[in-house]
Amino acid sequence: MSPEILYALRDPAGVPTQPWLFLILGALTLALHLAAVQVMLGTGALTLRGAYSQSSHWRRLAAHMLTTSKIAVSVAIVIGVAPLLFVQVVYDPFWYTSNVLSGWWVIGFILILIVGYIALYAFYWKNHHLASEGGRSGHWMVLSLALLLLVGYIVHALTNQMLFPEQWMAWYAPDGNIEPTGRQLHYSHPLRFAFFIALSLPVTGAWLLGYRRYQQARPDADADYIAWLKPLAMRLLTLGGVVSVILGVLWMLTLPEKMAWFALSPWSVLALAALLVTVAFPLLLGARIDRGYWGYATFGVGAVALIVVCAVREVLRYVTLVGSHGYDALDYTVHMDWYSLLLFLLTFAVLGGVTLVYMLTVAWQAGQTTGRYSPSPALSWMGNLSIGLLGLWILAYFAIGFYVWAS
Ligand code: HEM
């Protein structure tokens, strides 16, 4: 496919701000999305492992991880929208073609996700007394995990099909016969997919270290349970980290020819280093892991490592499309739109920031209190502020709409 055709597929309206900003935000939000996906899958798997155990510690963990997994699905979905917006803005010729070639799966993605999410709730509804009575109807949880993985596989295929414009015609019209149903996923790289999914193991290990520290800080802390959690978290982090790194190396060794330059580049070495630092971090911390906020730090370091991995993944895509197909995402025509840029940044930083800080503080403090919890007046004020800001946002949204419509 010639670069001229690829450029002709671009949106003639251009983009509302500098394309590099979209690339940076795309990598950043993809890292957040993947962190939520990996916590969702890891805690879901721990739920299944613990629900049927004879051990009261395992069942207690399963009950807590079920709540985590349930929330993580919604976080993964909500945050998944952000990289979706960024990728379709700067890579629209590639993203939309890939979607059209597998249209059946793009629509199916939503239905599969809905059923997967409902299945998780079905398991939850059946298991209100998981810690004391053990698990029931595990098939719902198995179904949920399988469907959520399928959803991830569909995005993986879409995101990879876009990197092969030279194949698009053959996929669209094999042997010259048009195949209009969109029922096929045409390209996947199982080792790449396995790498991103396997990262659930170390990410969940880091999550468990934070969960353990959180339990430790409660007034009614159960020392036995907390001691039991540590080796489990460390096993997931270290063994899971090693498994992920091996899969990452195998992915690099099997890169398609046009991407082979990437395997031994400083970029992949950087991603490898970031992952290894995360795995080694609790060892560096030593006894400090039980003090202050250090118990949470491994997850923070892991989040930074995920940002590095996603940034490096973006380098692979950007250079492949420039080098092999003559398409430079950074030369997109810019039609600066200060209003939408400011609205986006304010929504992200102010509305999102205030609301998140409020919700996280309430959840945090409630979990650290025995008996009835009442937020302080300052915190309640913050809650009201986030509702007020949301009201203001809705007002601004309709006001600008009416203004544009009327002028
Ligand atoms: C809940 C199950 C999900 C799983 C297991 C999952 C997993 C993944 C994985 C493994 C990748 C990386 C693929 C690769 O690079 O090969 C990915 C990328 C992506 N995911 Fe998800 N995902 C899920 C849901 C969603 C949802 C609901 C959305 C959108 C609302 C979404 C949006 C995206 C986007 C846009 C990318 C690629 C961004 C890019 O190429 O720049 N995902 N996801």
From TrEMBL:
Coiled coil: none annotated. The chain crosses the membrane at residues 20-48, 69-91, 103-125, 137-159, 193-211, 232-253, 259-281, 293-318, 338-364, 385-406. Keywords: Membrane, Transmembrane, Transmembrane helix. This is Uncharacterized protein. It comes from the Bacteria. The lineage of its organism: Bacteria, Pseudomonadati, Pseudomonadota, Gammaproteobacteria, Chromatiales. It comes from Thiohalocapsa marina.
